[in-house]
Amino acid sequence: MIAQDVIDQSRSAPSPDSSGRTASTWHSQMPDDKEMLRAAVELTRDIADARAAIYWPDMLGSATLGYAALAGAILLDNPLAALACGLLASLALYRALLFIHELTHIHKDALPGFRFAWNLLVGIPLLIPSFMYEGVHTQHHARTRYGTIDDPEYMPLALMKPWSLPVFALTAILLPPALLVRSAVLVPLGVIVPPVRKLVWERASALSINPQYRRRKPEGAFARMVFWQELGSSVWAIGLVAASFLYGWRPLVIALCVVSLTAFLNQVRTLVAHLWENDGEAMTVTAQYLDSVNVPPPALLSPLWAPVGLRYHALHHLLPSMPYHALGECHRRLTAHLGQDSTYTRASYKGLMPLLTRLTRSTLQAK
């Protein structure tokens, strides 16, 4: 599966036209590094299987810690202790939530029951069921879509105005209350008002950042999965609102604040997941890789702000189906094989702040 991912991408890379010219940006002009693509496939075949013994304890432990810390944030009277619990809950739930990324890539038969358990324990309680990412994120990995207007997860942030960066990050804080309104009000309303249902599905049912993205109507087995996940989310959301009317709003407000911090952390991570320098043209696989970011060791804090393997985001674009627990070993093997002066190492950066600084400078230079 992983080998085929890379091979298919490489075969579909754009070629020069009859005059020998390529498209206008440095991204599309960049030829593929065949040695890197070949090494990525050949050196990692033996570690390409998702290991249940890692996935299950990691997800369950993160969720358990997150909910326990959230209970502390709600129940403790000491403000500092409650604040500390809230911060811990945000980080733990952040890690638990990001398993949604793994669900979009692992084979459906790789981890029996994992998708159901994740939705039951994490996705539905936090009002982000897996359908919001499944069928969307894979479009971001399509060779002909990445970085174009058809990519749901790409905006040329480096080419936009400086004020767009804080606005982009801070709008994430509104996501949890918006999701509550979506599941408690808009989805039930859409059952009796078809235009509302169509609008909610197209515009508010995908974890995308491209404002021009419109989601297509679900079909077949996926549509059935969407129905049950929507039903679970709506019942849960309505129950939360009803309980708040009966017992007070403080627990819900605290929970929304905790999840808002989680959403903000993810939005900051998104800011540095790519360089965001493409202006909309199709890119070669190597160009896509170099427009993406790895933050490998010795960066110490990257597992906190880019957990579940997302510190190796550029490598993930080379090997989309590689399980998160194998990416560190993949990185070590490719670095050792290709060398420190290779194309592969050009996607590695020292940490969050250097990447944010680079992005900010790019926006200051944008016209």
UniProtKB/TrEMBL annotation:
It holds the Pfam family FA_desaturase. Residues 1-29 are annotated as: Disordered. Residues 80-340 form the Fatty acid desaturase domain. InterPro entries: FA_desaturase_dom, Fatty_acid_desaturase. Residues 7-28 have a biased composition (Polar residues). Keywords: Membrane, Transmembrane, Transmembrane helix. The chain crosses the membrane at residues 53-74, 80-100, 112-133, 167-193, 221-241, 247-265. This is Fatty acid desaturase. It comes from Novosphingobium mangrovi. The lineage of its organism: Bacteria, Pseudomonadati, Pseudomonadota, Alphaproteobacteria, Sphingomonadales.
